[in-house]
Amino acid sequence: MKRIITPLIALASIALLVAGCSAASPTSSAPVSGGNLVYATGDAEPTCLDPHVGGNYPQALVATQYLESLVSKNKAGDIIPWLATKWSESKNGLSWDFTLRNDVKFTDGTPLTADAVAANIAHLQDPATGSSTGYLALAKVTGVTAVDQHTARITLSTPDSALLDSLSQPWLAIESPTALKRSQDVNCQSPVGTGPFIVKKWDRQQSITLVRNDDYNSPPADAAHKGKAYLASIEWRFLPDSASRYAALQAGTVDVIDNVQPDTIVAAKSSKNILQIDAPRPGASNRIELNSSIAPFDDERVREAFIRSANVNDAIKSLFFGTAKRSYSALSSVEALGVSEPKLFSYDQKAAAKLLDDAGWTQKDANGYRIKDGKLLELDFPVSTNQSIPAEQSLFEQLQATAKEAGFKVNLQPLDLSSWYTVLGKNQYNLVSAPYTKVGPDVLRILFDSDGTKPAPSGYFANHAQVKDPALDTLLVQAGEVSDPAQRALLYKKAQEIVLGGYYILPLYDQQNHYLLRSQVKGLRAMPTVSTPTLYDTWLQH
Amino acid sequence: MAAALIGEAPPRSRRRRRWLPWLLLRLGGVVFVLWAVATVTFFAIRLIPGDPAEAILGGPGSQTSAEALAQVRAEYGLDQPLFFQYLHYLGRLLVGDLGRSYALHDSVLNVIAQNLGGTLLLAVVSLIVASLIALALAAWSTRGGRVAASIGSLLEIVAAAVPHFWLAISLILLFSSVLGWLPPVSVPGPVGLVLPVLTLALPLSGFLGQVMRESMLDAMASPFVLSARARGESENDVFWLHALRHAAIPAIGLAGWAFGALISGAVVVETIFARPGLGRSLLSAVQQRDVPLVIGVVIVVALAYMLVTTLTDLADRLVDPRLRVDAR
To answer: How many CA atoms within 13 Å lie on the side-chain side of A69?
Structure first.
C-alpha cells in the first residue's frame, strides 16, 4: 500500500510546486502568547498516558508535554538540572543525593518533595504498575529516603554510572504522589505532573486535549524562556496514515507531524511553508543483528561474509534520498561515546566469496546459492512491519539481492509485531533488525550482555545477536559501575570494538526521527534526551 | 397497493402460523450465529502468536517483569486452562457482559457505544450515496443507447475494481492537497464526511450498478414491458414504474452483502481519514491481541449484519409479491 502512496505523494508535491506555493517568508519576531497547536502523531495511540505503565515511545512523545524528570540533557550531551538542582554521588557509589527545587508544585497542588520522588520510584518498582522501561532502568535502585524535605537519597545495590541518564528519560518522570494513589485506570486517563501543560481530555482514537499550566515555573536549564508556556492549548491528534498526515499538514489542518517518511521529507524540502527537524533517537543505531547462536552465523567468517556482501550505502542512497546518514557504530550518533568503524563494513563481494570458500561453503546450486554438506546457505530474516518503515523494508530487499551475489539465500518474512516476537522467542531467525531507544551507552549492556540472551517471562530478550562473550560481559559491568568519565569511555570503547570486530551487527543508520512543521510554528525543539518534541518554547506566528 | 396485496394474501390465521416458524427459525439462527462467531473469534485470536497478558501491560514485546505478568494473568484469569476461560467468557456473554478491553482499560460495551455511531453513520450514508450513484448510472446506461451502455459498464467495472486505500489517497490528493476544497482528515461536521463516504460509496456503486443494469435490461426485454408498451404506456412510465422495480430486487438482495463490504471498508477508511469508529477499534484491537474488544466488535458487526439481512428479506417481500405468496 505504501509503495503506491510514495509516487502519489511525489506527484502531489510536483503538482503543488507547479501550482506555486504561497510564499510566506518566515520572519523572526517576539513570541506571541496564545493559540492552539495541532500535533498529529503517526505513532500508536498510547494505552495509558502515564509512561510509568509499560513505557514506550508513543507515551514519551505526549508525556514530554505534561511530565518532567529530575534531570535533563543539553545538546552537548551533559546532564543538566531540571526538577533537581544539584546531585552528588557518595564515595562508594552506592547512594546519590538529589537536591530538589523547593518552589515547584504539581498541577493538583501537591508540592514537589523528597517523599514525592520516593513515591514515584516505588510506583515504578511496584509489579502492579506494570512498568517495563522504568523498571529495568531502576534495576540497581534499592530505595529512596528523604534526607530532608527537598533532598532525596537514592540507594543502590551496586554503583550505577547510568543512573543520571536513566532518570533523564520521560519514562521515569516525576508525577504527583497524590495522583498516583488513585486507581491505575484513572491515572492512565489523566496523569498529573509539573509540566507546562495539563491533560484535560482524552478522546480515544481521536485526540488528547492539553491546556496550559498557568502556574508553571520549572523548565529544564536549557529552555529558551522561563514562566508559563506560550501556547494556550495543544490538540494531540492520532493520524496513523502517513500520506494523510502529510496532506493534513499541507492543508493546514495540523501544525506539526512526526514519523515522517523519507519520500515525504524530500517532498517537503521544496515547500517554503514546511520546515523539518531531524532528531535521531538516542541509544542503539538501527542495525541488522546476526544471530551467532545457530548455524551458519555461529561461524564468524560467515558473519563477515554476509556483512561484506551487503551493499548498504547504495541502498540507503536510493531509498532514503539523502535523509539518513550511514552509521558504522552500534550506538546512535547522538551518543558521545559511540565508536565508528567504517573499515569493518566496506562492501566487498570478492572478500565475501573468499570467506565463504574458507568456511567450507564451496558448492553452488543452480541458482548460485552456496551449499555445504548438502545444506543450503539460507538465512531467515523476520521483519517487523510495525517497526521497520517501508523504506527500510525495501532496503532489506536490496540487501537480499546483494547477498544473493555472494551465494546467500535470504528469506524475508514480513510479520506483525506479536508474530515477530514469537519467532524471535523461538530462536527461529538468522537476521533481525530491532530498534532500541535509551539514553546513554548503557544500552550496550542491554543489547550485548550474555544475560540479554535469556528470555524474560514474556519471551522478550534484547540480545538478538546472541553475543555470549565473558570478556565483553566484564567490560560492560565495569563500565556500568565506574564513575570516572575517562575510564568509562575507555571501557565502552573496548566493548564496542568487540561487538563491531566480531561481526555481530551490520549498522545501517541512526534511528530515524523526523518532524515536519508549518513555518508559522516557532521555537519547537526536540529534547536532547530521547528526541521527543517539547512544545514549551513553541509559539504560533500569525 | 397495500389493500390489493392483503387481498391476495391467505387468511390471517394461516398467515400468522406461517410467520411464526419463520421468525423462530430466524431467532434461532441469530443465537447460533452469535455463539459461533464468539467461539471462532475466541479461539482464532488465541491461535495467532502473542500473549494477551502483554497486551494488558502495554503491547507485544513489552519488557515486562515476571511479577507484573503473573499478577495480570491471575487478575484476568489467563492462568487457567483455555477451555475454562472460554466457558467463563461464554457465561458472561450470556448475561450481556462483554468484558473489559485489555488495551483501553475500559468496558467493551463503552468502547463500542462510543464508536458504533461513527461507523453506522458512515456505512448508512455510503450505502445511500452508492445506491443513488448506481441507480443513476444504470438508468443512464440502460436508456442511453449503445455508447452509454459501454461507457456505463466500463465505469462500473473501474469503480468496482478500485481498492479503498488507493481511492482514499487519490481523493485526498485531489480534493485537499491540490484543490484545497475538503479537509484531508476527519473533522467534525458533514464536511469531514464527504471524502470517507465517497471512498466507500464509489466501489460499491460499481457493484450495485452492474447488477441493476443487468436486471433493468432483462426487465426491459421481458413480456410485461412489451404488454405495457402495447397498452400505450410512455417509455418513461414503462421504465420508472415497471423495469425499475425489477432492477431493485437483486440490488436489495445485495444490500446485506454491501453492508458487510462497507464494514470491512470502514477499517481502511477510518484509519486513513483518522475517523473514530468500530473499524479502527477492531484493527488496533487485533494488533494488540485485545481479545475482549475483538470479540465484542465482531459480535456487534455480526448482529448488525443479521439485522440487515433480515431487513432486506422483508424488503424483498415488499417489492416482490411472488415471495409473499410463496412465503413459508
So the answer is: 28
The cell for B98 is 462483554
Residue type, A98: F
DSSP codes joined into one string, B50-75: --HHHHHTTSTT----HHHHHHHHHH
B192/chain A closest Cα distance in angstroms: 12
Touching B: A residues 73-92, CB under 8 Å = none
Positions of chain B with pLDDT under 50: 1-10, 326-328
List all residues 6 or more positions away from A389 whose beta carbon is below 8 Å from its beta carbon.
A261, A262, A512
CA angle at A116 for the pair A115 and A121, rounded to the nearest 5°: 95
Q: Under an 8 A CB cutoff, do B184 and A248 touch?
A: yes
Q: At A518, give phi and psi (nearest 5°).
A: -70, 150
Chain A residues with CB inside 8 Å of B114's CB? 204
Cβ partners under 8 Å of residue A540, min gap 6? A32, A34, A35, A37, A230, A231, A255, A520, A521, A522
How far is A55 from B57, CA to CA, in rounded Å?
Answer: 9
Question: Are residues A366 and A535 in contact, defined by beta-carbon separation less than 8 angstroms?
Answer: no
Distance of alpha carbon A460 from the chain centroid: 18
Q: For the CA atoms of chain B, what is the radius of gyration?
A: 24
Indicate yes or no: CB of B178 within 8 angstroms of CB of A12: yes
Contact B169 A5 (CB under 8 A): yes
What's CA A257's distance to the chain center, in Å? Answer: 17
User: What distance in Å separates the CA atoms of residue B116 and residue B126, rounded to the nearest whole number?
Assistant: 15
DSSP single-letter state for residue A329:
B
d(CA A110, CA A197): 16
Give the burial class of B324: count Cβ atoms within 10 A of its Cβ; 0-12 exposed, 13-18 middle, 19 or more buried. Answer: middle
Chain A: closest CA distance from residue B181 (Å): 10
CA distances from A220 to A81, A101, A195, A447 (A): 6, 12, 10, 30
Interchain CB contact of B172 with A (< 8 Å): yes
List chain B residues with CB under 8 Å of A15.
Answer: 173, 177-178
The dihedrals phi and psi of B260, each to the nearest 5 degrees, come to: -60, -45
Rounded to the nearest 5°, which phi and psi values hold at B221?
-95, 0
Q: Do B172 and A55 touch (CB under 8 A)?
A: no
Which range scores top for mean pLDDT: A1-10, A287-296, A458-467? A287-296
What are the DSSP calls for A175-196, one per residue? Answer: --HHHHTS-HHHHHHS---SSS
The pLDDT score that the predictor gives to residue A221 is 94
pLDDT tens-place string over residues A96-146: 999 999 999 999 999 999 999 999 999 999 888 878 888 888 989 999 999
Q: How far does B202 lie from chain A, in Å, by closest CA?
A: 19
Beta carbons of A234 and A535 less than 8 angstroms apart: yes
Instruction: Determine the distance in angstroms separating the CA of B201 from the nearest CA of chain A, rounded to an integer.
Output: 19
Chain B from 28 to 87: CB within 8 A of any A CB: 48-51, 53-54, 56-72
How far is residue A321's CA from residue A398's CA, in Å, rounded to a whole number? 15
Q: Taking a contact as any Cβ pair under 8 Å apart, which residues of chain B between 146 and 165 contact chain A?
A: 165
- B contact residues 243-282, partner A, Cβ 8 Å cutoff: 271-274, 276-277, 280-281
